[in-house]
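TASK: fixed-backbone design
INPUT:
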């Protein structure tokens, strides 16, 4: 994925987060996929670092 594509996906996710915050019962209905869970695990573990290669193999 190119950097611009990452930004577009991130913008979509930010909009979804805004909708969740604005309306407590809002839900997109999408189940969490394995890749997203890996990303959440990395971020929650404080392993999101500048300059780190784009890879989920470290999870």
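OUTPUT:
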């Amino acid at each position: 994925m190119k950097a611009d594509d990452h930004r577009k996906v991130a913008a979509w996710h930010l909009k979804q987060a805004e909708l969740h915050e604005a309306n407590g019962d809002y839900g997109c209905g999408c189940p969490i996929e394995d890749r997203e869970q890996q990303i959440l695990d990395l971020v929650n573990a404080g392993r999101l670092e500048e300059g780190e290669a784009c890879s989920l193999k470290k999870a």
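COMMENT: The mean pLDDT is 79.
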